[in-house]
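Exercise: predict the structure of this protein bound to L-captopril.
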Amino acid sequence: MLLLLALGAATPVYAAAGTDPKEEAKAFLELYNSLYAGQSTVANEASWAASTQVGPSTEGARTAANQAYAAFVGDAAIIRQTRALLALRTELLPLQVRELESILLRAGDAPATLPEVVNARIAEESRLAAVQDGYVFCFGPRGADGACADGKDANDVDHVLLESRDLSERLRVWEASKEIGVPLKSGLVTLQKLRNQVAREMGYSSFFGLTSASYGMSSDEMITLLDGFNTDMAPLYGALHTWATRQLAARYGQPVPAGPVPAQWYPNRWAQEWSGLVTATDLDPYFVGRTPESIVKDAESFYTSMGFEPLPPVFWEKSDLYPVAAGQTRLKNAHASAWHMDMQKDVRSLMSVEADSQWFFTSHHELGHVYYYLSYARPGVPPTLREGANRAFHEGVGELISLAAGQVPYLQQRGILPAKVKIDPTQAMLASALEQTVAFIPWSAGVMTHFEYELYEKDLPPEQWQARWWALAGQYQKVAPPDAARLTDPNLCDACTKTHIVDDPGQYYDYAIATVIKYQLHEHIATKILKQDPHMCNYYGNKEVGAFLRGILEQGATRDWREVLKEATGEDLSTRAMVAYFAPLQGWLEKENKKPLPKVSKSR
Ligand code: X8Z
Ligand code: ZN
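Solution:
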C-alpha cells in the first residue's frame, strides 16, 4: 500500500521546480514495472491452477488474485499519474510514452472508479471459465440429474466431426457440442454489460472499442479493416465453398444444397476450418504410432533449428501438454494456450496433444507464443511492453511456423511425409486454403468479428443473439443451422460455445489480422531470404530466417506495430501477399466446379 501511495502521490511529483519529466517518468515506471511483474505473476499462477485443476477452490483463488491484480493496474492514483505524465509527452522519451500508454490501456480493463463493476466482472469471468472448463460433453441422453453415462471431451467431439460419414451421428455430436452454450448464456448476458461498463468508464466506445484501441484504432476502423479482408477474399471463398460443398454432398450422398450448408456437415464445430477434404495431403496416417511427446518435440525442433534456444526446463516441468490420463478425475481447460507466468523465463503451455496433424500444427502455434515470450523477456524491454508488437503479431508467429511446417519439402526432410510421396502443388495449396486460411477468413473476420462488434458496440440484446449469430454465419460463411427452430430457442447460445467469446473476449479479429500478417512475413522469408517458391519452401535449419524472426520478436511492444511490419516486409498491412499466394487456385476451382459431381467417397 505504501508503494501504491508513492506511485500515485496526489500532487504529481514532476511538478516540483527543476525536476526533469524524463526522470520523474523513469522513477514512476521503474516502480510500476517491478510491481506489475509481481502482481501479474500471482494472478497468472492462480489462473494456471484454475485452468489445470478446475474446481470451486481454484476458481475462488483465481477470482481473488485477479481482483488484486485489477486493483493494481486500475488504481486511480496510477491512472492519474500516468495521465499527468502523458500530458508532457513531448518532453519524454518515446519508449516512456509507449510504456505509459500501455499502462493506461491496461487500466482501461479495470478502472478503480468502478470497483464493484470490475470485481463483479472478474468474478463472473472466473465462474464462467470454470463452467466452460468443467463441462463434459455427452453424446447420449443425460440422466435426470444432468449426468452423462459416458462423458466425452473436446477431442472426442472433434474426432467424430472429422471422421464420421453418418449424418445422424454427426448431427447428434454437433448438437451435443452446442449444449454448453445453455449454461454459459446467462453469464455472457451479465458480462456483456459489465465489460462495456468498464470500458466506457475510461472513455472507450465499448469493450470492442477498448480492444481495438491497442491497435491505435477505433471500433469502426477495426470493422472497416476486417470487412476489407472479407471483400478481398470473397471470390476465392465463393469458389472454395462451392468446391467443398460438392465434395461434402458426395461424401454424405446428399444433393448439393442450393443455399447455405448445414453446420453439421463440416469437420469442425464452427466450420472455421475444413480439414480432411484433400486426401493427398492428409497427414494423419503418418502420425499413427507416434507419441504426443514427439509432436511437441517436433515443434520445438523447428524453432531450435532456426537458432532459437531449446525450451527452458520449466516449460517441460510445469506445462500441462497432454489429455488427462485415464483414471485421473481432474478436469482441465480444453483449448490450447500459452502462458508467460512471470514476465521472465517461466513459460508454459496448456494443451491436450494427441498424435495427429491437428495437434502437430497447434503445437507449432503455441510454441510461437512461447518463443515470443522468451525473446522479449530481456533487459531492453520493460515488463509493461513484454507483449507482441500487437496481439495479432503474437498469434501470427505460431501461425507462420504452422504454415511453414505444412510445406512438403519440410515434411519430407523431417521424414514426417515419406520422401517417395509425390504431392501435386495444387492439392497442397487447396489443403492449405481449406485448413488454414481461405475458409478461416469469413469466420474470423466475418462471423466472430461482427458478432463481437454488435455484442459490445451495439449492445446486441440477448434475445437476438441466436438469430444474429446464424445470420452472420449465413452471410459470411454460407453455413446454416441444422434446423430453423434453433434460431428462436431462448435457451440456446451457439455463439457462447466458442471459447474466445467467453474467455478471450472482443478480440477474435486478432486471428484474422494474424493470418494476413503471416502471408506478408511468409512471402518475405520465402522470396527474399530463402529465395524459394512460397508454396514449396523450407525454413527448417535456416539461421537467417531465425534471425529475421528474432529481430521482430525481441522488440516486444517497444515500437509501433505498423513500423515493425513495414520495416520487416517493406509493406503496410495488406492482403496482397495472401491473395497472391492463393491466386493460382481460383481458376483451378472454377474449372473443377464445372465438372460433373464427384463420386461418393466411402473411405475416410
Ligand atoms: O485459439 C487459437 C489457438 C490458441 S491462441 C489454438 N486459435 C484460434 C481458434 O482455435 O479458434 C488458433 C487459430 C484460431
Ligand atoms: Zn494463439
